[in-house]
């Protein structure tokens, strides 16, 4: 699936509040996607930085899209594990979200997601495990 097809799939398969986040699919190859996450006032906590819940939702969404790019279509799956490390605060106008499928088997898939700040510095790193249903 290319970037355009993945972008069109967001409002079709994700919850409305995920679609409302405004994620933009910038690049897509088999098993890898890059998204642009706008940092909106609703996503920022008192400290003036992106809240962890937004980062985790963006990471989880990006990995589903990466799986779709590898599989060629949406297949039912569920998140089994999402481990997230917050390395530096994220602020500014946007973040870049890069997701890569590390391994996909018959029943489990594993992935890695990086969120980068506007300067390209790693700010959040997540790993995921999905059960393929």
Automatic annotation (TrEMBL):
<dbReference type="InterPro" id="IPR039298">
    <property type="entry name" value="ACOT13"/>
</dbReference>
<dbReference type="InterPro" id="IPR006683">
    <property type="entry name" value="Thioestr_dom"/>
</dbReference>
<comment type="similarity">
    <text>Belongs to the thioesterase PaaI family.</text>
</comment>
<dbReference type="GO" id="GO:0016787">
    <property type="term" value="F:hydrolase activity"/>
</dbReference>
<dbReference type="Pfam" id="PF03061">
    <property type="entry name" value="4HBT"/>
</dbReference>
<keyword id="KW-0378">Hydrolase</keyword>
<dbReference type="InterPro" id="IPR003736">
    <property type="entry name" value="PAAI_dom"/>
</dbReference>
<protein>
    <submittedName>
        <fullName>PaaI family thioesterase</fullName>
        <ecNumber>3.1.2.-</ecNumber>
    </submittedName>
</protein>
<feature type="domain" description="Thioesterase">
    <location>
        <begin position="48"/>
        <end position="123"/>
    </location>
</feature>
<dbReference type="InterPro" id="IPR029069">
    <property type="entry name" value="HotDog_dom_sf"/>
</dbReference>
